[in-house]
Design goal:
Layout (H helix, E strand, L loop, with lengths): L2 E5 L8 H10 L5 E5 L14 E7 L2 E5 L2 E5 L3 E5 L6 E4 L4 E7 L1
Antiparallel strand pairs: 1-6, 2-8, 3-6, 3-8, 4-5, 4-7
């Protein structure tokens, strides 16, 4: 099980529009997810490698004993067959999922 956190934006106050433009420019197919504050998305177990791109708000990705926080401008690559769940922060969040 492996994770790689990285910045998709070089500016502190990145926006969802900036992320969408980046994904479109790179021809990356993605799925937009809006998650409610204090909620939890069901555990995922993708067969393919997955990247979570944080666009708005904040979230924590949990997998077994690992917790990784993401803010707008952050992304997290998750290896294939790694179970994980997404936990939105104190405000609603928007993130994009891509699978390779």
């Amino acid at each position: 099980m492996s994770f790689k956190k990285f910045r998709w934006s070089q500016v502190y106050e990145s926006s969802e529009e900036e992320l969408v433009a980046l994904l479109n420019a790179r021809k990356i197919d993605s799925e937009r997810v809006h998650a409610e504050a204090g909620g939890e998305q069901p555990e995922q177990h993708a067969e393919d490698a997955t990247t979570i791109w944080c666009a708005e708000g904040s979230l924590v990705v949990k997998s077994e004993s690992t917790n990784i926080s993401l803010q707008p401008g952050d992304a997290l690559r998750i290896d294939a067959n790694t179970p994980y769940s997404v936990h939105p922060g104190i405000a609603n969040c928007v993130y994009y999922l891509t699978r390779q």
